[in-house]
Each structure stands twice: as structure tokens, then as C-alpha cells.
Design goal:
With 336 residues, this protein is of the alpha+beta class. It is built from six helices and twelve strands. Strands 1, 2, 3, 4, 5, 6, 7 and 8 form an eight-stranded mixed β-sheet that branches. The C terminus is likely disordered.
Length: 336
């Protein structure tokens, strides 16, 4: 009776990709849509007035009377629809591919059609992103079925003619009314493929989202840039006992020998640091002050041991002496 709600099994069918069809292609799509679904209902023994159908442009809303066994829809009707689609798509360049939403609940009839939250849910499941993504991922399949949690529990899990519960997979889907649980099945497959949405694109050989995007030319590897003058001079070889350490040009680090050795400074401004036995004295950069005889220069000075050195001065270089000096012999033949 009009205006009164009654329980009914709701079947909503929608064509995938219908928005990409031209105006001349849509009438043929609709003809095939009504043919494959109507023939499937006939094959399952479901006819008016036990079957109400309402046109939705690129889809059909169907409501079955309470005395129609829902398992007949979940099993026979779905399998017949699958086979009818395979037959009609055999020679089509653009095959007809359908999404089906199944739910059961209270439906209100009026002069304009059928309404109710149960109708809304069946339509939402049919049109949800997960159903669309699964059908896109199943490129060779013409049909995906999305059953509500209630339909799955009451009519899928018990099994029946052409009903295999193991072929369904659960997904939580976000609808306008909120998140809900749905069960998806692709006829002809033991399980549906994983859905890949725009947020989680289909994987490629380069990874889930494809190859990484380059924001600019690849950065060339090389030594780090120096923000100031370099101070990491390479270490200089140490002088052996009794040998003379000779400084190079300005800025080079001269090395001094051990006690009794002669360290000759380089050009003016070079710094020489004298050490003790087995220590290599290395000069700092040009302009640094030389350190001689300090506690850091060696243990001989720190303990008060006296070191006597004889230094011969040549040229205009400075005399560098380590430790305490008892005498300096400046006799170089020049009187300096």
C-alpha cells in the first residue's frame, strides 16, 4: 500500500564508465543494460509484480517483494547476469560493465517510486569508490557485486545455489552517511582484486605511485663546499732523529726534528712549532705565532730538562729553538 514501508530486497545496477559515452552510444548501452538484467531475472524466475524496477538513466533500481527468496538473487540472478554480460560483450569494442549493490530493509512506495534508507545504502554501495576501483582493477571482468554486511551475514554466509562465501572480500567503505562494512565479489574469480583508488594508485614496476618525480636536475656528488679558508692541510712526514726539517714556501707547514735536530724556517711569516723526540712539529697557517718551548711542545721542557742546541743561521730566516738555550753559535763566516 502506498505510503507504508515494507521489507524488500533491493538491487541497484549501474553502468561503469557511462559518462564517457557519446549521446549516440548511450541508447545502445541502455538497451543492453535492460536486456542483460531483465533476462537474468527471468532466468531466476523473478517477474512483476514481485519485481519493481525504476529507471536511473545509466542504471536500474529494483525492489523485490518480501516473498522472493533473497538467496535466489545472490546466487542465480548474479550468475545469470554474469553470463549474459559475457555473451553481449563478445563482439563489443566498448564492453558493458556493471556494478551491483545489494541490501535488504524497509522500503516506502509512493506515486513517484521507492525510497528509504535501505534504498540509499544499496545505491551508495553500488556507486562507492571501492566498487569502482575493484572493477577497474579486474580489467577482464564485466561485473562486480557489493553486498551489505546484513546481506552477507544472512544470505551469503549460509551458501546456496551458485553462492560461494569464500569468493567475497570485506572492505570498510566511506559513504555520505558514514563508514560501513561491505562485501565485494567478482563473478568468475575466486576473490576480487585489491582496489586501487586515486589516493592509492595502482602499482607499477617503479613502485605503488610510479617513478618518483624529479623536481630538478639530479644533484651531482662531490666534495662538500667550503664556506671559509681550508684548514685541513694534509699531514707532513715526520723527520727522523738527527735529520733537518725544512719549511717550504709561505703557507706550507714545516716539520721540525727531535732534540738536537735543526729546524729551518721558510719565508717570513711562516710559523714553526718544535716538538720533542719522536714528535713532529707542524707549523700553522701563515701569520700564526710560533710556539716554542711551551709545555705543549714536549715533555723535556715541561720537566725542566735543559736542551742545548747550536743553530747556524743562513739568509734572512728567523731562528727557531726548542727548550732552554745555553749558547748559540752564530759563526757562519759572515759575522751575523
Amino acid at each position: 500500500m502506498e505510503g507504508e514501508a515494507a521489507y524488500g530486497f533491493i538491487v541497484n545496477v549501474d553502468a561503469q564508465g557511462s559518462g564517457l559515452l557519446s549521446d549516440t552510444e548511450k541508447p545502445e548501452m541502455r538497451r543492453r543494460l535492460y536486456d542483460v538484467t531483465g533476462t537474468a531475472f527471468e532466468q531466476a524466475g523473478i517477474r512483476p509484480p514481485r519485481l519493481y524496477q525504476e529507471d536511473r538513466g545509466d542504471g536500474i533500481l529494483g525492489v523485490l517483494a518480501p516473498d522472493v527468496p533473497p538467496v535466489r538473487v545472490v546466487g542465480e540472478w548474479v550468475e545469470n547476469l554474469h553470463q549474459n554480460l559475457r555473451e553481449t560483450n563478445r563482439d563489443l569494442r566498448k564492453p558493458l560493465r556493471l556494478r551491483v549493490g545489494l541490501h535488504i530493509g524497509r522500503v516506502t512506495a509512493d506515486a513517484f517510486g521507492r525510497s528509504g534508507r535501505a534504498v540509499d545504502l544499496a545505491c551508495r554501495l553500488c556507486d562507492c569508490g571501492t566498487a569502482k576501483a575493484i572493477l577497474r582493477a579486474a580489467a577482464d571482468a564485466p561485473l562486480v557485486v557489493a553486498a551489505s554486511d546484513r546481506v552477507h551475514e544472512d544470505f551469503v554466509l549460509p551458501g546456496g545455489r551458485w553462492v560461494d562465501p569464500d569468493h567475497y572480500r570485506r572492505h570498510d567503505v566511506d559513504l555520505k552517511e558514514g563508514r560501513t562494512t561491505a562485501w565485494f565479489m567478482v563473478p568468475g574469480r575466486s576473490e576480487p582484486p585489491e582496489p586501487y583508488t586515486e589516493q592509492h594508485p595502482e602499482p607499477t614496476a617503479d613502485g605503488p605511485g610510479g617513478p618518483p618525480k624529479q623536481s630538478g636536475p639530479p644533484k651531482q656528488s662531490g666534495p662538500p663546499e667550503q664556506s671559509g679558508p681550508r684548514t685541513d692541510h694534509p699531514p707532513q712526514p715526520s723527520a727522523a732523529v738527527g735529520s733537518a726539517g725544512t719549511a717550504g714556501t709561505a703557507g706550507d707547514a714545516p716539520t721540525a726534528g727531535t732534540a738536537g735536530d735543526v729546524a729551518t724556517a721558510g719565508a717570513p711569516g711562516d710559523a714553526a712549532t718544535a716538538g720533542t723526540a719522536d714528535d713532529a712539529a707542524t707549523a700553522a697557517t701563515a701569520g700564526d705565532a710560533p710556539t716554542a718551548g711551551s709545555a705543549a711542545a714536549g715533555d723535556d721542557v715541561a720537566t725542566g730538562d735543559r736542551v742545548v742546541q747550536t743553530v747556524h743561521q743562513h739568509g734572512n730566516g728567523r731562528i727557531v729553538v726548542a727548550g732552554n738555550v745555553d749558547s748559540i753559535d752564530l759563526s757562519d763566516g759572515g759575522g751575523r
